[in-house]
Design a protein that fits this description.
It is a single chain. By secondary structure, the protein is α/β, with parallel strands linked by helices. Helix content is 47%, strand content 16%. Helix 9 (304-312) links the parallel strand 8 and strand 9 (316-321).
Length: 532
């Protein structure tokens, strides 16, 4: 007799394998951390510089986080996040590109600890978001308002930005220059907006960084055309910016003209001469005596013959002006670009007191246009450097300094530097974590500890003992010294505001919020799908 079958109550629990998801998360975090560790040593005024060798054999020496990461070829998708992170910090604030990556790396390390304790990624991610909102509030409460008329504060924050760069010894020259450049392009109608495209940085090899200067007017790192002995200096200049060619016209379609005798050849040459002469007479009759000619891709913008006639007409010629410079040039000269000889009229010209070619001590030449009438709100900075590496780094550092001043124009608040805001954040978030309930408090506490990475790294890079310094720093902040920070030069803890180490509030707040955003994104990923 068959035994009766007993239907057992099936357990509804099924085994879900989370191993793969955890592995991918760990791999992502490890990749992002290795990128953060790569730039960590270049943080702060005593940070090391990186030498980057590109595939084409070009060598770049830089301290700028965004540049280092930009040149890195990150293959792992999560590592690319950090490269994009430093780019977005560069766009928002311009400075703090290394800080943002180091903070992201530290937050990832903290998250890893929480995940291994068995806390769910979503809880970690939400706590991180709450902590970042609170952090921005704390920073805003610490900030000191600043007026744009207070030039000293602006110069201090620009020189703090420059102090961590290769060209830090020139910060006394470059910081005031950056401040003056930004303040000269601020539009009173829109006082919160600064477009850095209105500041043109012209690099010219030769001399030293000490020779860098700000020019009220225009600078071209080109020579005047000397082909036919034309003038190289023009007072009371009437300047025309042209986008057409002063050379014989070409046929629209590919064709060849067969010349069978000398009479026809003479006629062709005569026609060419008359055509060019006709153009130059029109230019001269409009009263123009300086021509800026846009680079042409169709045919030669000028020929030897046209240069000869222009020199006869005593017109100073600057050729090969780049297409993307035209907008800046016309805005500065307050004139209109002329695209056809028929439209060449006196009202489209710009006026200036002096256009001259200046020979530099080392054989190079530049053209300066000074005393422009009704000049637009633009300015030019001529950067000099003894070699290409220094020159490029000086330009990058100057860009960072300009961005710092722009941040202060957008959001007129200053905050102490030297690791002071991070330790204060760490202290206040730690206290706030005790008030929170459950897992959130636990998560926020570990994020608060993670923020100590900035002062810790600053101390490490300066060759100090990070444990002693950070402990002492915590102690000072616990006693209520909000602005106590690491003075890297003296190797001890002082009031950083008195040492003039300040940075714009926007740099710190955007660093915290962008870093947390990036970390949350990495935490939420549990699988990588490759699509062929």
């Amino acid at each position: 007799m068959a035994a009766p079958t007993v239907s057992k109550g099936r357990s509804t629990e099924t085994f879900v394998d989370n191993k793969r998801k955890d592995d991918i998360r760990m791999a992502n975090i490890a990749a992002a951390q290795s990128v953060a560790d790569a730039v960590r040593t270049s943080l702060g005024p005593k940070g090391m510089d990186k030498m980057i060798s590109t595939a084409s054999g070009e060598v770049i020496i830089t301290n700028d986080g965004a540049t280092i990461l930009n040149k890195m070829e990150a293959r792992q998708p999560a590592a690319k996040f950090l490269v994009e992170l430093s780019k977005s910090q560069d766009i928002v604030a311009g400075d703090g590109t290394t800080t943002v990556v180091v903070i992201a790396g530290a937050l990832l390390k903290a998250s890893l600890g929480l995940l291994t304790s068995g806390i769910h990624p979503t809880i970690v991610s939400d706590s991180l978001h709450k902590a970042s909102v609170k952090a921005v509030e704390i920073l805003s409460a610490m900030a000191i308002p600043v007026e744009l008329s207070d030039r000293d504060s602006l110069v201090k924050s620009a020189s703090t930005s420059l102090n961590s760069k290769v060209v830090s010894q020139y910060s006394t020259l470059l910081a005031p220059l950056a401040v003056d450049a930004v303040l000269s392009v601020v539009d009173p109608d829109k006082p919160d907006l600064v477009d850095l495209r209105d500041i043109k940085v012209v690099k010219k090899l030769g001399g030293t960084i000490d020779d860098t200067e700000m020019v009220k007017g225009l600078v071209f790192d080109k020579k005047v055309s000397h082909a036919a002995g034309g003038p190289t200096r023009m007072e009371n200049a009437k300047i025309g910016v042209i986008q057409f060619q002063i050379s014989p016209p070409k046929t629209d379609i590919e064709q060849s003209i067969v010349v069978s005798d000398y009479l026809q050849m003479d006629r062709i040459l005569k026609e060419e001469r008359n055509y060019i002469l006709g153009m130059i007479k029109k230019i001269k009759s409009a009263g123009c005596n300086v021509l800026l000619i846009q680079k042409s891709i169709l045919r030669d913008a000028v020929t030897d013959l046209s240069l000869h006639y222009l020199a006869k007409a005593k017109i100073l010629v600057i050729k090969d002006v780049e297409r993307d410079e035209i907008e800046f040039v016309t805005k500065t000269l307050n004139c209109l670009p002329i695209s056809n000889i028929e439209h060449f009229r006196a009202e489209k010209l710009g006026n200036a007191d002096l256009v001259e070619e200046i020979a530099l001590g080392d054989g190079g030449k530049i053209v300066k246009i000074k005393g422009i009438k009704d000049m637009g709100r633009t300015t030019s900075v001529l950067v000099r450097g003894s070699n290409q590496l220094v020159l490029d780094e000086a330009e990058r550092s100057l860009h960072d300094a300009l961005c710092v001043v722009r941040c202060l124009v957008n959001k007129k608040f200053l905050i102490a530097g030297g690791g002071a805001p991070e330790i204060e954040l760490s202290r206040q978030l730690g206290a706030w974590a005790k008030v929170l309930q459950g897992m959130e408090g636990y998560c926020v506490k570990s994020f608060a500890e993670a923020l100590e990475v900035i002062p810790c790294t600053l101390a490490e890079n300066a060759g100090l003992n990070p444990i002693t310094i950070v402990t002492e720093l915590r102690n000072r902040h616990a006693q209520g010294e909000v602005n106590a920070g690491i003075n890297v030069r003296k190797g001890q803890i002082t009031n950083i505001l008195e040492e003039n180490v300040v940075q714009p509030l926007l740099v710190s707040t955007s660093a915290i919020s962008l870093a947390t955003e990036c970390v949350r994104m990495i935490l939420k990923i549990d699988d990588i799908v490759t699509v062929r």
